[in-house]
Structures are given as structure tokens and as C-alpha cells.
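Known limitations

C-alpha cells in this collection are predictions and should be treated as such. Users comparing against experimental data should check residue numbering before alignment. To illustrate the layout, the record for Caib/baif family protein is reproduced below. The input appears on top and the generated C-alpha cells appear beneath it.
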Amino acid sequence: MKTQSKTCEHCKNEFTINDGELSLYEKVGIELPTICNFCRIKLHLSFWMFGKFRKGKSDLSRNSLITVLPEKNRYPIYTSSEWYSDKWEAMDYGQDYDGNRSFFEQLQELQEKVPHPHQTGVKNTNCDWCDDVWNSKNCYLARSMVGCEQLFYSYRNYFVKNSIDVDVCFNSEKCYDAGECHHSYKLFYSKHSRDCIDSFFLYDCKNCQDCFICWNLRGKSYCIENIQYSREEYLEKLKSFNLGSYKSIQNYKKYFEEIVQKEVVHRPNFNFKTYNSYGDYLLNCKNCHNCNTISESEDSYNCVRGISHKSNIDANGCWNSELLGNCASCIDAYAEKYCAWSSSRYSEYLDLCIECEYCFGCVGLKKKKYCILNKQYEKESFEKLKAKIVEDMKNNGEYGQFLPYSMSAGPFNFSNSFLYFPETKKEDILKLGGYWEDVNESDIEGVPTSELPDDIKDVKDSIITQALICSLTGWRFNIAQNELSFYKENNIPLPRYHFDVRTKNRLKYLTVLQAYSYKCFYCEKEVEAYYLPEWNYQKIACEECYKQNIN
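Generated C-alpha cells:
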């Protein structure tokens, strides 16, 4: 096989398909892509809503529900319990294939008839104001989490408890304003740290306790700005820092960011226990190439966000899957192609199909076999019709393409894709057939956050009865009772911005998909690192020098 060069049909940039990708495309059995990897990721993640939490009603029972899906939906919305029940049947929406029309048009017509669940995730307790939540309880306004408890205003966490404003954290408890931290307890305003306790403003620290504004430390206690103090000296200094003041914390954040730029030695990526793999945030991966934020995976290419990939290519937001090609948000799947939100086998062009086999172009089916456009066929008839549809799609230039933007779940600017591609312009998405929503909430009444007390000790309990207005977006948000108790217990000032604004500000440091060329701070050899040039990090090290000088 030879490397192939192509021009992306969306962004018009040149991209290359290398020998390894070509081999896996052949193994998985999908067509070669016509859009570049970044545009594939952008399209896939547009089917995964970040959304804005709102109240609504089920189109089946009229029962109340809370969802991140837009108010103007293209399809009926049922509560999750209703959707998984036997109160309706997706096969009732089956339709015949029309060879004179675009297959994608027909599939979208079907998609807009079939109900969708109001929330993604199962086995949860008291997590109504959440989405993409699994095996969790008592969480509030949080998204994308597994095994979490008492988690507020957070995104993509794994077994995190009693925490607020944390993103991409694992096995941690009582943390606040933390990003990509592991196995930590009472860790505040920190990034990329592991096994740390009772500390503030840490960056790339491991096994540290009682430290304040520190970086690149290993196994230290009672340090301030990487200077060692006695326990008594440390505790006395800590009292003087006025951590309950919002203005004081903002000054510390600004100072800490300057240290991150000028003093921190940055490793080229945050991979851990990987073999023959490249990308960022890879954990326990083998032979994974051009991947980001995946773990326990092997022999895969071009995958973002997921766990347990095996021989997957262009599979984004997928878990526990094998031999997937050009798929988005598929879980417990095998040999799926061009599918979204499905857990099925040997199938193509599915949306929201559960435990199906040998299906093509279906929506919302459960435990079905040999179906096309939600209509049942015998095996021989299925194979004959599928072959005709594939031939028609190839003639129309559709086969091998992922589902179009017009079939995505909602506005692009409220999807997970916008977290990774925040510079995307409205007009570009509309040209591709996608959706955009401009939200104006300037007429909402409430207390401007600029009028809040500076220090948490001056905040009255009545604050939980007041609506607060974000000074940046004009969106309304509230302080919950448990949230206020957490702030007072840990001497944390009230936030001034809407929780979605806070989440997006933290995620911009955790969603870089492209490596940039730098020179190693120590040996000056070329190094590829996942930091945007505008961050102005001055001490980036190659892996070897980082291990010698930091690890």
C-alpha cells in the first residue's frame, strides 16, 4: 500500500492517508475518507450535545423532563425510561426504500419520526439535571461522567465525588476547579496533578501534600512556590493568603498562569503507560496512532474520547468497541460502519440502535436483525436490497460518508464539537447543512454577579433564593444549597460566571488535538507538543529530558 494525498471536501486543506491507516481501513472494510481527520472529528462530535440544560415535556406522556437537547427538536423526545420501555415500537416507523431519492434524505426523514431519549446514560439516581451520565448519583448540572457522586458543574469525570467545577478528573474527592487530576483529595485550582492532598494551584505535581502554587514537584509537603517550609511556617503563611476573597483568588490565578508560562517544565504530552503510540492523554494504550483522550486501547487510528478501542479507525466518543470505522459515540459495538450512538454488530448507518445485527440505515431499533429503514426483511431480501442501496449511494457520492450535519442532534455551537473547535464560524456550519442557535437572555432578571460579596464569609444563606446573572453571557444561574455549603466549608468565593462558561474556560487547555513544533528547553532538539503557541509556554522539554530532570 502507498500513502495517499487528498484534499478535504470541507476545509479544502491537504491531508495524507498513511500506510497504517490504509491497512486498517481495509481490515475494517470502509471507504477511504474524503474529509480530513479534523473535519471528521468535528462532524462526529457535532452529534454529541453539550447543550444547555432546560425543562421540557415528554412527547409521549407529557411528563416533565430535563434535557440538553434544543427546544426546537427535529424529532419527538421521550423520557429515557419511556424510550427504553415497551410503550412504543421503532418498527412502526418503517418505510420502503426509494431508489430515485437520496438515501440520506430518506434516513433523515425516518430519524425525524423516531423518538429519542431526553438524556444519555443509565443506572443513575437523582441525576435529573445531568447528561451522558452513567452509574452515578446525586449529581447536578454535570455531563459525561461514570461512577460519580455529589458532582456539580463538571465535565468528563470518572469516579469523582463531592467536587465542583472539575473536568477530566479520575478517582478524586472534594476537589474544586481542577483539570486532568488523578487520585487526589482536596485539590483546588490545579491541573495535571496526581496523588495530591490539601493543596492549591498545583501544576504537574505528584504525591504532594499541603503545597501552594507549586509545579513539577514529586513527593513534597509544605512547599510554597517550590520553596520548602516547616509545617508551622506553611500553615501560618496559608492563613495570610485570604483564599475566601474572589479578588484575591483572581490575582493568584493570574500569577499562577504566569508561572505556568515561564517556570513550569512542560512534558510534550500527558500519555501514561503507552507503547508505540502517539497523541495526547493516552492511558494504557498500545499501537494507537493519532489518538487523543483514550485508554485501555490497542491497534487503533484517529480516535478521540473513549475507552477500550480495538482495531478502530475514525471512531470518536466510542467505548468498548472493536472494528469500528467512521463512527461516533458508539458503545459495546462490533464491526459497525458510519454509525452514531449505537451498540450493535455488523451494521451500517445506524442511529440510536441497541443490540441489533445486520441492519442498514435504521433509527431507534432494539434487538433487531436484517432491517433497512426500520423495516423487516428476510436475509436474502435484506442482502439484495442493501447491495442496491450501496450501489445507489456510491453513484450519488454518499456511500462511505458519515451521517451529514443535517442529522446532528442540535446546534453546532451547543455540541461537544464546539469545545474542540471553538473558532468555527456560524456560516461555515450552515453551508454544510448544520444548525446554529443564537441565545439572547438579556431580558432575564437577577442579581449581577458584580454585586456579590467579595469574601465567602460575607455571603448570606439567602443567596440560594436569588437568581444570578453572568457578567459575560447574561445567562442566569443559581447557587444550590449543597454548593454553598461546599464553598463555605472550603473557604471558596462564589463564582461570577455561568457554570458552562467556567467549564469551557477550563476545557480549552484539555481539548488540543494537534501537536505543534517546539525546541526542547534542555537539548534544543525538535519536539512535538500539544500546547497552542499563543499560550507562550517557554520551557517545553522532550520526553527524555523531561524524565531526566523532572521524573
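For this record: The chain is about 20% helix and 30% strand. Residues 516-549 form one domain. Please report discrepancies through the issue tracker.
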